[in-house]
Specification:
It contains four helices and no strands. It is an all-alpha fold. It is rod-shaped, with a radius of gyration of 22 Å. Pfam families: DUF3098.
Length: 89
């Protein structure tokens, strides 16, 4: 056996494309949480209806959920054979 055959090659758990997709998913989730911010009243005795806006109640949770689902997709995605050959070089 040659030395190359006995050496174990260090392999990452995920490919480079998976990490890029995970970074995109992280940005989507953070964007969703940023959409939820705001709506506070300066005076605690006055109720601000802006808390119940479409952006905070509907849009932001959908964006966050999409970000988490996209993150799951990014982890589960397997690279194609061409991408594997390119990464081995």
């Amino acid at each position: 056996m040659s030395k190359k055959e006995t050496e174990k090659k260090f392999e990452m758990a995920l490919e480079r494309q998976n990490y890029r997709l995970l970074a995109i998913a992280f940005v989507i989730v953070v964007t969703g949480f940023l959409l939820m911010m705001g709506g506070a009243s300066d005076n605690p005795e006055v109720f601000n209806e802006e808390v119940y806006s479409f952006r905070r109640i509907t849009l932001a949770p959908i964006v966050v959920l999409f970000g988490f689902l996209f993150g799951i997709y990014a982890i589960m995605k397997k690279p194609t054979a061409a991408q594997k050959e390119e990464n081995e070089k």
